[in-house]
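Internal tracking record. Fields below are filled automatically when a chain is submitted to the structure queue. Please do not edit lines marked as system-generated. If the sequence contains nonstandard residues, flag them in the REMARKS field before resubmitting.
Queue: standard
Priority: normal
Entity type: single polypeptide chain
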Amino acid sequence: MPARTRRISFLAAGDGPRLAGILHLPDGPTPCPAAVVCHPHPLMGGTMDSAVVVAVCGGLAVRGWATLRFDFRGAGRSEGTFDGGHGEMDDVAGALDFLASQAEVDAHRLAVIGYSFGAGVALHQAARDERAQWLAGIALVQEHYEDPFLNEEPRPKLFVAGEHDPWAPAELLRTYVSRLRPPAALRIVAGTDHLFAGREGELAEIVGEWLRDANAQTRA
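SYSTEM-GENERATED OUTPUT FOLLOWS
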């Protein structure tokens, strides 16, 4: 299912800066489910053009999902300045506002997905934003594992990490996920690390299949 893409801009929540993004719309039935996909650390070169982010958006598009990838404040073409993950939560809220307002999108079937820094920001925002039905964290770094913010979260959750990721150690992540309230799924990608270099397509398949199944269960 091919996707149409267009460059867009929107305001972060709370009178935040104007952010640049790319909206992917599948050529298929509408309104369709949709996901906000958040990029890795801006101070380490992360933008919405991250290979992982682009692959996840493309993989969801072929499954009939709309996606919105965007640059956090101060990154890429977005206005504003880096805020250490705090103001960036408002960026995610603004992205959900924009996505939910699109005629092609089913505002009752929204997911939030983040990679590395973006996973921490996306999941923290989703924890306080009931619009997101599904939560996915790719390479969520271990600094978040002692934070109880998701411990009692009842919505479906997916966590993915590379087998050799030093920032999201597989066994520590496994322990973290095991203490979360179900449903919480974990996928470890063998033979790769934090970057998933050359494995982006496999990663996109994991996320896409999980969302397909989670969406089907919700609608059953």
